Amino acid sequence: MALERGKLVLSKKGKPQVEINGTRFNLAQGELSQTLITNVKDINGVEVEFDMEGGQPKRIRAAGGEFVPPHLSGNSVKRGSRQKNVQRGNEKRNQRARIDHREDARMPDFHNPYNFIPAPPRNMDDHELGDQAPIEQDRFHPDRISGRISVELEASTPLLVPNPGTCHTNDEGHKTFKLLKGEDDKPLIPSSSIRGMLRSAYEAVTNSRFGCFSEKDHDRRLAYRMDAKEGLRLIPARIHNGEIHLLNGTSSIRRNGSPEKTQFAAWLPRYRGEDKDIDTEYTARYSDDSLPEHGDEVDCIVELKEHRSGRFRYWKVVQIERAGNDSPVPRYESRTERRQIRGWVCVTNANIGSKHDERVFFYSHESGPRKSFPVTDNHRQKWHELIRNYQEIHQEELKKREDKNQPYDQYRGREPGHTAWSRHVYTPADHELHEGTLCYVRLTDNQDDVDALFPVMISRELYGQAPWDLLHDSLKPASRITELSPADRVFGWVLGDSGGTRKKQTAVRGLLRVGPVSCLSSVDDAVKIFPPEGLPLAVLAGPKPQQGRFYVAASQNGEAQSDGLSKEQAGYSPNKGLRGRKVYPHHKTLSENHWDQPLDDQTRRPAGPWQEYRRPDSDKVRDDQNRSILGWVKPGCRFVFDIYVTDLSKVELGALLYLLTLPEKHYHRLGGGKPLGFGSARLQTTCCDLLTGDDLRNKYSSWTFVPKQDTLSNEAVKAFKDAVQGAYSQGEAQDFEQISFIKAFLRSSQGFDDGLPIHYPRATEGGHPGPPDPRGESFKWFVANENSTARYALRDLDNEMGLPTLPDPSYRN
Prior knowledge:
This protein is of the alpha+beta class. The longest helix is centred in the C-terminal third of the chain and has 20 residues, at 709-728. The chain is globular, with a radius of gyration of 31 Å.
């Protein structure tokens, strides 16, 4: 049925109507796409498409867009309820409501750009899919298959194949890349890129060992930001003479670690105003007008204050001098309790936008007997590991400050990365506990030892296990030549840092080679060129493996965890696993004109779908957060190349042919920008010239030899499917397409059927779906996801129902 066109108008009462040739139609409930509902005040005059049924417009969406069924009333569903089936022909739509532990579970409105293909523990008893030593390559083996496979590749979405040698970097650190082209001005795709694309897919469908997962990069525990409430359990402390001395001020310590009366540390006035000015009357200084420095031993006069919230009391420093100098003398009468203390200045810098005071750690006998605990090797190791994590994850941000000659401790704004950095983030000496180290500690439940030490009150905390510990041994990179999985044997193997002892042979040549890639299309049909300033791409988010709800599996089979778990519960811990191999599902719902007019900013129009690939126009459309391109490979561009194989088994060949002959509308992903929708490509074989070793002998010893190409190819694909079924069926025999990693692979290569857009998570005012933010800032969604009413996990690919937009926590009611 052809789509009709009209425009949206608002009635006198502000209700949306569809106007068709001057006639207005009221809208039935559920017929206006969610992408239009979220911007009702801006939709007047927007051109729309719809189906006319019974003389009424149905399934109304923005022109060129997809119809996204509207949310339930109140943007929530009751526990265990399901969304009504409002999308005709989509029988699974009513499964979209997430069964959840909360009463106010939000309805999903987008898919995350990445997900994971599960990698269950491998069946090491299977001769073909288990481990083997490589076959000798000095001859053609009788039952092994060699030859050439000719392949055609067609781009479904634009391909980003940048030329790294042409990178231009401006003064803002913004990089611009030309398209990689040959002398004929046609695009070039390196053979290594095709090989890498095929190897990743081959690893997934054969459940091979991980090719890129080194112990060196993944044997360190990751950390998460502790809940602010957990910070109340932390007690100030100082390292002295090999012991951890608690400095709990005038308060005794409750059983949960929190203070009994006043806060443990005294508040030291330091920063004032939006600029965190330290040259004001508010800032506490010594009598010589110098600033107290971190670690200074001091004598102070403090006054008892009640916080304006009325929830707690604290000591505020009103006068301060270095210990050993003349003791401070009160300058005025006080109506509140006042006393003199001796302690140590703790300065962590203006590391959050609302900070105004530093701290003085001290101890008073009225809090009870002084407590101290010996510093153990375990304490030192945990501290070293935590500080190393802090410094490693912030290397890039610190480098940017260095390049701009900006001090690490300089406050430049409230936005993340612009506040001052805490001293432990950039101070190499803080890697180790040493005499005089000031820190916060958490006691064990019975308070007979120190459980952990932290550099700040609301700190990062290490998960119980490292990612390397959660990966099953059968999936870790091969450490010796007898441990080669199918992908290692076919594509080659090099001994890395996976923990194996170096033997004589540390590499194996693969049995597959990709020949040169040639472009069949004309230059006009192949290349889109942009002006000299280039097309500014959207900000690409960095990996966030510390987000356990996305990266950690409930078990080593790779299945998603439940919604509602805390960070610690969802984190890296024993008896869990990794989600599997990271993939970027095909963006199935994009319209045919999605890539038209890329230089025109269409990211701010009232209704989606939006240009998720383009950075919205703003004062910072080109900076060090994103990249620009001067060209891309057009959709529809065709390439050809040959794959040469030598001595593959039927199963090894069958896996390769399976990838080269995927069902219709299934795509591989190639090149850059895959989270933004770039890089979907369709492969098909055009010729297979394959022979066994016996066939080769017969060919050269007979004048009448006739090969059976189709039979050999079909037998190989069947042998591969049978091998996967035999090795990985759960209980009763499963169909090949129902094996967990095959099912997920097919879903990723096909994309989602539900019409939801794919983009990075967004948090918006009110939590309503909306256009992309020029700054990216997907981190705000993860902050909002820590709210107890959220805590959404990334679902399994084969059952991915999407995620909801969440309210931006920076907006306050």
